[in-house]
Specification:
- The structure is a single chain.
- It contains 5 helices and 8 strands; from the N terminus they run βαββαβαβαββαβ.
- The two termini are 27 Å apart.
- The chain has 138 residues and is of the alpha+beta class.
- The chain folds into 2 domains: 74 residues, Alpha-Beta Plaits; 56 residues, Alpha-Beta Plaits, CATH 3.30.70.
- α1 runs antiparallel to α2.
- The strands form 3 sheets. Strands 2-3-1-4 form a 4-stranded antiparallel beta sheet. Strands 5-8 form a two-stranded antiparallel ribbon.
- It is elongated.
- The chain binds iron/sulfur cluster (2 copies).
- One iron/sulfur cluster binds next to α5.
Length: 138
């Protein structure tokens, strides 16, 4: 079994197609919705955690790609510039998933746990030195 968080971007032409429910039925996958931005008669952006057997997961992702859905994996996309971060903790206060937490109370060190990130971008907006980043398409 694998479980990955992905950002799916549906262009306007396919925004009304039930592609996510298709992959669940066809490939026996399950999903949790982490974020959804649907713009009527425009594109839709969904952040999901998709789970299932590895082969089924890969087939489901390929099915979405074949249907013109653009896909980004959250864990590979969130990044922190370690040389810029000075562990101020501002990002910890806004991160909704505890992907950014203080791991050492003495030094107030802040660590990033990419597997918990949902690509909300809050940390990117508050970081005073722009250490946190997500690709533009997010
Ligand atoms: S807000 Fe920026 S500088 Fe401060 S702890 Fe977070 S990543 Fe580091
Ligand atoms: S984008 Fe930043 S604030 Fe949002 S979940 Fe990921 S690490 Fe936390």
């Amino acid at each position: 079994m694998i479980s990955k968080k992905v950002v799916l971007r549906f262009p306007e032409e396919i925004a009304d197609k039930p592609l996510v429910s298709d992959i669940c039925k066809k490939f026996e996958l399950t999903f949790n919705i982490m974020r959804a931005n649907i713009f009527p008669r425009k594109e839709g952006i969904l952040t999901l955690e998709i789970s299932g057997e590895e082969n089924s997961f890969n087939s489901g992702i390929q099915y979405l790609k074949d249907n013109s859905v653009s896909i980004s994996f959250v864990e590979e996309s969130i990044n922190r510039d370690e040389s810029s971060c000075y562990h101020c903790g501002f990002c910890v206060a806004v991160c909704p998933t505890e992907a950014l937490i203080i791991t050492d109370r003495k030094t107030m060190r802040v660590d990033l746990f990419k597997d918990r990130c949902i690509a909300c971008g809050y940390c990117v907006n508050v970081c005073p030195v722009k250490a946190m980043s997500l690709p533009d398409e997010f």
